[in-house]
Design brief:
Number of strands: 10
Number of domains: 2
CATH topology of the largest domain: Rossmann fold
Helix content: 40-55%
Radius of gyration: 20 Å
CATH class of the largest domain: Alpha Beta
Distance between the termini: 47 Å
Length: about 210
């Protein structure tokens, strides 16, 4: 891998394509595919060979002319690019329907995301056992963050509480927030937020269906 690539400014569009490349490579390995050309890759993702080659070249020289890409090697390298060669610790805030579903999402663990804590303010769920964890009170959140190294906080709470909770997270060292609340957050420099607007995605699908009429 070209370590000088770390100094390059990579566009958000490229970054958002990398997880899809990673998933496709995983599927190819499961099917026993050893190598793939940029043309074949482009056909799978509905892109162009030049875009595939351009995206990969931003991070290093992974292919060979006349051979294409070694699937397993490229899978490992993209995993490193995505930071999956290390463990990311995370907590989930809000043990409602969405929080419950995410707590039981086994794929997080297989990708190196280790759930360390679950928090809620509902007395009916506080203390409930979830796999090997107990749901903790929101009052315990600042102390927990001081005593544990946590990389990512997952917000599965109503929008009217999200900004207040995000402030507590940032004040206690959280650097990554996966935000499922339906509000955009303002955070200090150095804290990264990935917003997941489920309704916006559904409205986009609605538009596409309408456009086909």
């Amino acid at each position: 891998m070209d370590h000088n690539s770390e100094k390059k400014i990579i566009s958000q569009a490229v970054i958002r394509r990398m997880p899809r490349y990673y998933r496709i490579l995983s599927d190819l390995m499961n099917k026993g595919v050893d190598r793939i050309s940029s043309n074949e890759f482009a056909d799978i993702i509905g892109s162009t060979p030049s875009q595939v080659r351009s995206d990969f070249s931003l991070f290093g020289e992974f292919g060979q002319q006349g051979y294409g890409y070694n699937v397993q090697f490229l899978y490992v390298e993209i995993g490193r690019i995505l930071g999956l060669d290390r463990v990311h610790t995370m907590i989930i805030i809000g043990y409602g329907n969405l929080g419950h579903a995410l707590c039981n999402h086994k794929n997080f663990y297989h990708r190196g995301f280790l759930l360390q804590g679950i928090f809620d303010n509902n007395p009916e769920v506080i203390g409930k056992r979830v796999n090997e964890l107990s749901v903790l009170s929101m009052e315990d959140l600042p102390r927990f963050l001081r005593e544990h190294h946590v990389d990512i906080a997952v917000l599965c709470i109503p929008s009217n509480h999200a900004k207040e909770v995000a402030k507590v997270l940032c004040e206690n060292g959280i650097q990554g927030i996966w935000n499922f609340s339906s509000t955009d957050l303002t955070v200090p420099k150095g804290v990264h937020v990935e917003n997941v607007h489920l309704t916006e995605s559904l409205l986009t699908l609605s538009y596409k269906l309408k456009d086909e009429e």
